[in-house]
Amino acid sequence: MSTDNGTPPNHEDGADPNGLRDSSDYINPIWIERLRAHLGAHDSAELMDMMGPLHSADTGDVLEALEAAERFELVKQLGERFDFSALTEVDESVRTELMELLPNADIARGVSGLDNDDAVFILEDMEHGDREEVLSALPTFERLSLKRSLDFPEESAGRRMQTDFIAIPPFWTVGQTIDYLRNEEDLPDEFYQIYVVDVSYNVLGIIPLDKFLRSYRQRRIQEIMNANVILVDANEDQEEAARDFERYDLVEVGVIDESRRLVGVLTVDDMVDVIHEEADEDIKRLGGVGDEDISDNMVDTVRSRTPWLVVNLVTAIVVSMIIGLFNATIEQMVALAVLMPIVASMGGNAGTQTMTVTVRALAMRQLDGRKLRRLITREMAVGLVNGLIFAVLIGVVTALRFGNIQLGIVIGLAMVINLIVAGTAGILIPVTLDKLKADPAIASSVFVTTVTDVVGFFVFLALAGLWFGLF
Amino acid sequence: MSTDNGTPPNHEDGADPNGLRDSSDYINPIWIERLRAHLGAHDSAELMDMMGPLHSADTGDVLEALEAAERFELVKQLGERFDFSALTEVDESVRTELMELLPNADIARGVSGLDNDDAVFILEDMEHGDREEVLSALPTFERLSLKRSLDFPEESAGRRMQTDFIAIPPFWTVGQTIDYLRNEEDLPDEFYQIYVVDVSYNVLGIIPLDKFLRSYRQRRIQEIMNANVILVDANEDQEEAARDFERYDLVEVGVIDESRRLVGVLTVDDMVDVIHEEADEDIKRLGGVGDEDISDNMVDTVRSRTPWLVVNLVTAIVVSMIIGLFNATIEQMVALAVLMPIVASMGGNAGTQTMTVTVRALAMRQLDGRKLRRLITREMAVGLVNGLIFAVLIGVVTALRFGNIQLGIVIGLAMVINLIVAGTAGILIPVTLDKLKADPAIASSVFVTTVTDVVGFFVFLALAGLWFGLF
Questions:
Q1: Which structural domain range is residue B108 located in?
Q2: Are residues B31 and B85 in the same domain?
Q3: Interface touch A280/B279, C-beta < 8 Å
Q4: Using CB atoms within 10 A as the burial measure, which of A16, A23, A24, B205 is most buried?
Q5: Is the CB of A283 less than 8 angstroms away from the CB of B309?
């Protein structure tokens, strides 16, 4: 997400006790204290000595290690020497907060030096009015190019692409191209392949740099280019593009617009971030938290978590009403109240196991029809086998604990039924959500545990009521 | 994980109804049926027409879409034309099964054409005896190079590295280097940077290809090289190396051995796989499943899930014993049994939310001392605020449902306490596990929900007993 315009620390030399990172790879508190001292003393030469050599990823981590007021102070004191691409490396809440404090004129100056993709990343979350103000302060060419990227949908390839790339005609020779590359000043900072295009920028082929380097000067580009090219539509979701990168081991790919003109390129470093974000999103959604960061404040955190807890409260009340149906049964045999959470809890866990595997398989597009049928069969069988194992275990424990073999049989039966239900629900619920175009990671958890709770309590209490004639 | 030696399908043209993938990016059943027909007819020309043009990633997906017997049949019929690098793209269980069916001589022939890293990936899971047999059938140079990689620890950079790279002396000129690249036959398939080394292969600097391409022929290598190089120790964990790639947007990095000699290179495509695997591992561990794939059979699945369910059974029994303490209380007031799962369930969910955020922050090395203190404060505050919100909600619902305001107050109090406990446990448990060098993703879930269950049931029942004088 950033240009490689700083120096990463050299890890393999072992951690310097006064260096930027400690031996566990965390930002070193000693380093931060030294920075703080210079910040307090307004010693901008020393500040620059410390911050200047940093890679933007490290600058981002330093910003995150500071308090909010210090971050603004640091950016202010560094002035024009602050590397705005570091803003692409911090949590959204840190970026938003800092951007709100900074004057729009400073932001315009800061982003105008950046790669197109970094600038878009920083501008896309700004409020409309502020963003327009920043854009209008930029040089025309840059403004138009940024506006164009911002016109593509959020999280699309068009938003993540870099608009600088190398495009040459097919009739050039290798020698001509090398001379062009050596003499042209305005080239992208980094590139991994050369695009061969016709006059209307339709892509005819690509040449990876290693292959290009090994070709003789007199060869024609069209003879050495690879005409079988993967291209990505600018409107395509970034996640789909990332899947192509992962599957086909790509390093760079061309992005085309509706009229099939080459408008930019995606590079693997941005896709690595996307892959990481998407996995992170899945983990958080499965855990019942939204798009939150550890830097979010308390109010935002409460706001993002409450909806999920409300849903859980409603389902918990439903479960409690199911138990309420067996009021009289429990009154006659309090042991049931003591035992009932065991069946529900085991079902919840078994269901979560199946659901986790299913959600991952869906996210990675592994579940075609045949595999789905296999998975359903397997999970029901696993539910049955685990059900039998744990039925015997809990049956024996219960019989011994309450001196009541029949109670052991009842809880064992309930266990088998609930674990089969757990396996089935754990797979059918995420698959159904996926078919309905909903994200299975978001809602599967709550549905699965509701099913296993309802079935767990109901089956156990109903079986016990019938067996012991308590109705 | 594989060389780019096949043609990926061109997505942006829209899905061909008879093509390899359908519109949702799954392997097309129609395509597979056609392949099956050729397989049945032993029509090797047609088979090759279908399989030949595929990228190894697609070949891998095709293998997974077939039944076990068909996979072996396909590999057998393709013979020497089967692309062994596809084996790096399939689930471990599919690979293991296929490898056991294939004669070691075929495996030796298959891996001998592969990149070093792909060959290691395929060989590392083989049984010792079989592996030695395969290795001894390989040409000396290849055998030694593979053995060397296999000597590095599992999941280390040394295991993932590619041992082909371009190393040149610092006193060469750009022109000399270009001529060498053009004339030398035995070069890596793909490379993104050139390594500058001294006589003992110590790295003096690197030159990215784009920078190299733009330099004039007469320039000396040592003038244009970047002497500030990131290198990775061959014994370093692949996950740490992947973190460097992600943080510093790397595409390729040199790997050095104990004596600091350059022994190989890591490329970003392999690191993308590592990043994905690690995230996947975290998700599965949080969901209580081990290293399992959807291709695993039923017995393996039961085996991998049972330990977790046993742990859960034990904790569920402990929780049930806590409830058992309040036998007499529940007997006097059955409404308590009906309500008690609500407090526990809300605590479990709130605790899981906090734990998820903490586990992710730990995995991404985001939690230094200051952030940890901030997070603890925030989570306890979130617990208090959410506790108050849900105390009022459940208090009102309970008071109305049972016509008992005092019962509403008791459950509300229990809710506040349990949600604060949930926030605290959700953060302290994973952090403690991390400090003890245990993986917080594995065991946090069970500890957190045990704490919230125990506290939830105990506090609610004890408060009710005290309030209503039921002891």
A1: 11-160
A2: yes
A3: yes
A4: B205
A5: no
- How far is residue B398's CA from residue B396's CA, in Å, rounded to a whole number? 5
CB A346 within 8 A of CB B309: yes
* CA dist., res. B454 & res. B328, Å (int): 18
Tell me the chain A residues in contact with residue B24 when contact means C-beta distances shorter than 8 Å.
Answer: 365
Tens digit of each residue's pLDDT, chain A (471 residues): 334 445 555 444 455 777 888 877 788 888 999 999 998 889 888 888 899 889 889 999 999 888 888 999 999 898 888 989 999 989 888 898 898 899 988 999 998 888 888 999 999 888 888 899 999 999 998 899 899 999 999 889 999 999 989 999 999 999 999 999 999 888 888 899 999 999 999 999 999 999 999 999 999 999 999 998 999 999 999 988 998 898 888 999 999 999 999 999 999 988 888 888 888 888 888 888 877 878 788 888 998 899 889 999 999 999 999 999 999 999 999 999 999 999 999 999 999 999 999 998 888 777 877 788 888 999 999 999 999 999 999 999 999 999 999 999 999 999 999 999 999 999 999 999 999 988 888 888 889 999 999 999 999 999 999 999 887
Give the residue-averaged pLDDT of B92-120: 89
Residue A6 lies inside a defined structural domain of this protein? no
CB B276 within 8 A of CB A246: yes
Question: Which positions in chain A touch B229 (Cβ < 8 Å)?
Answer: 10
Q: Which residues of B touch A210 (CB under 8 A)?
A: 190-192, 209
Query: Between the CA of residue A249 and those of A12, A204, B6, B12, B89, what are the distances in Å?
Result: 27, 21, 11, 18, 11
- Sequence-distant (≥ 6) Cβ neighbours of residue B306 within 8 angstroms: A386, A389
Q: Which residue among A210, A269, A312 sits closest to B349, beta carbon to beta carbon? A: A312
A286, A317, A378 member nearest B287 (Cβ): A286
B442 and B308 co-located in one domain: yes
Instruction: Give the chain B residue nearest A325 (alpha carbons).
Output: B338
Residue A11's contacts (CB-CB under 8 Å, 6 or more residues apart) are B230, B232, B244
B260, B271, B366: best to mutate for the A interface, most A CBs within 10 A: B366
Contact yes or no for A157/A252 (Cβ under 8 A): no
**Phi, psi (deg, nearest 5) at residue B184:** -70, 135
Which residues from chain B sit within 8 angstroms of residue A250, using beta carbons? 269
A192 neighbourhood in chain B, CB within 8 Å: 192, 209-210, 251
C-alpha distance across the termini of chain A, in Å: 66
* Domain match, A150 and A88 both: yes
A133 and A49 part of one domain: yes
Same domain (yes/no): B246, B124: no
3 state SS of B404: coil
From chain A, the residues in CB contact with B371 under 8 A are 64-65, 294-295
Name the residue facing B288 among A2, A26, A352 (closest C-beta).
Answer: A352
ipTM of the complex model: 0.80
Facing B245 at nearest CB: one of A2, A245, A272: A272
CB contact under 8 A, A284 and B357: yes
Mutate to test the interface with B, among A121, A210, A446 (most CBs of B within 10 A): A210
Q: What is the pLDDT of residues A377-391, one digit of tens each?
A: 999 999 999 999 999
Q: How far is A129 from chain B (nearest CA, A)?
A: 32
Q: How far apart are CA A468 and CA A307, in angstroms?
A: 41
Judgement on whether residues A28 and A147 belong to the same structural domain of the protein: yes
Q: What is the pLDDT of residues B400-410, one digit of tens each?
A: 999 999 999 99
Q: At A52, which CATH number?
A: 1.25.60.10
Is-contact B4 B124, C-beta < 8 A? Answer: no
Instruction: State which of B160, B184, B201 marks the end of a domain.
Output: B160
